[in-house]
Design a protein that fits this description.
212 residues, alpha+beta, five-stranded antiparallel beta sheet, three-stranded antiparallel beta sheet, globular, protein biosynthesis, peptide deformylase activity, Peptide_deformylase, hydrolase
């Protein structure tokens, strides 16, 4: 990727973030940084600081989530991380096509649908605490991104890994999953756990009155 002059102000912001208590407080819905397209990464951070930021973002995920975009921690750059060990019941993993997804750095990612098929499942977001909703997403996508060293890679993803990639790429465009959700499916996480934690949202669709 092209290298520009290091942005001292942005580097200072990242250094402050890295010294903040862990786990981080995630930027909540309603914050402007989540609604602005992230700036393309073009070398605004020193290489070692970029690596430290991405490692810290990954370290935030275990037990909390499967993806995190830089704007969710207040950094307005087009980068995200993914890591999904998929430690869920086998019947859920099969229904949701959710194999383990190895850790990935997504720097300046682009996600392109492969085919027209979509699948709908409940999603959540670290920036939208306490809610979940059904979102239809492309079943197969091509992910193109750079890693922390600037090497470009491309992957074809399907099922849940494709969903995660689409969710994180949306963040970098200022889009939240609620923007794409079936409004009648919106549920608190407590109500979801009580009523709708089936492998698919079919029963919820019938009961709540949204397209299956």
């Amino acid at each position: 990727m092209p290298v520009t002059t290091v942005d001292d102000s942005l580097a200072a912001q990242v250094k402050t973030l890295l010294t903040a208590p862990r786990p981080w407080t995630i930027v909540p819905v309603g914050s402007p940084v989540l609604r602005r397209p992230a700036a393309r990464y073009e070398g605004q951070l020193p290489d070692d600081l970029l690596a430290e930021l991405l490692d810290a973002m990954r370290a935030h995920l275990p037990g909390v989530g499967v993806g995190l975009a830089a704007p969710q921690v207040g950094i307005p750059l087009a980068m995200a991380v993914i890591d999904d060990p998929a430690r869920i019941a086998p019947e859920l993993a099969a229904a949701r096509e959710r194999p383990p997804q190895a850790p990935l750095d997504l720097v300046n990612p682009s996600v392109t649908p492969l085919g027209d098929e979509t699948v709908a499942f409940y999603e959540g977001c670290l920036s939208v605490d306490g809610l979940t909703a059904v979102v239809a997403r492309h079943r197969r996508v091509r992910l193109t991104a750079a890693d922390r060293s600037g090497r470009t890679y491309a992957l074809e993803l399907s099922g849940w890994p494709a969903r995660i990639a689409q969710h994180e790429a949306d963040h970098l465009d200022g889009i939240l999953y609620l923007d794409r959700a079936e409004p009648r499916s919106i549920s608190t996480t407590a109500a979801y756990g009580q009523y709708w934690s089936d492998p698919t949202p079919a029963r919820a669709a019938t009961a709540l009155g949204f397209p299956a």
